[in-house]
Amino acid sequence: MKEKLSPNFEDYIEAVYIIQMKNKVVRVKDISKMLNVSMPSVNGAIKNLKEKNLVMHQKYGYVELTDLGRKTALEVFQKHNLIKNFFMRVLDLPEEISAEDACKIEHYLSKKTMERLSEFINFFEKNSPEVSEQFKNFYKKGHTEK
Known about the structure:
The chain is mainly α. It has a single domain (1-146), classed as Arc Repressor Mutant, subunit A (Orthogonal Bundle). The chain contains 7 helices and 2 strands. Helix 1 packs across helix 4 and helix 4 (67-90) packs across helix 6 (111-127). It is elongated, with a radius of gyration of 18 Å. The N and C termini lie far apart (52 Å).
């Protein structure tokens, strides 16, 4: 069984994954900028992630995900997007709020909860367009029309 990462380290590995998708190469300063943390903090986190065989990094070089790191980062990234999509598509929240709140709670939900949330979103979008509109009207007007 793989070791559970702290929310902080999950944020770092997800940042590496996102930056790598956009830029192909990841530098410590890119992670620092994205997470709004100091470069020494990033270096400490990268050292820890390297010890867990999640990243490869040579001093002053690029940060790369290992196969295990890529798998772990993808899981975190998918959780984040699933929660963000729930907030945006079901609760009709703005993207910025949805992304921020998803980042706060993505670390604490079980795999089972994530599976159920995914199924709910699929069910909701396929079967309930009228419920979606009723909900939007409810929170905008403070009541539902019957």
